[in-house]
Design goal:
This protein is an all-alpha fold. It folds into 2 domains: 44 residues; 30 residues, no CATH class. Helices cover 83% and strands 0% of the residues. The longest helix has 40 residues. The termini are far apart.
Amino acid sequence: MKVQAMKAAPSSSDQAFVDDDLLSAVEHAIGTQSAVSVAAAELRALRALYDSLTPRERQVMGLWSPLVEQAGGRRTPARARSQ
């Protein structure tokens, strides 16, 4: 039984790999959380800007949305008028 326990016990070199994997996973999770936090902050800022628009500005914005989506986000208002 002692021999089986010794075979099952991780060696110090195995432990180094486990530590590296764990550290890598934690760093990845922190990076992902940071990206999510930044995106959430940007979304809150955009919502605040949208909320500050007048009804007419929202109406105009709604008119431009289909043109921008149709062009893949690459058209400017001047180019859209010329076509």
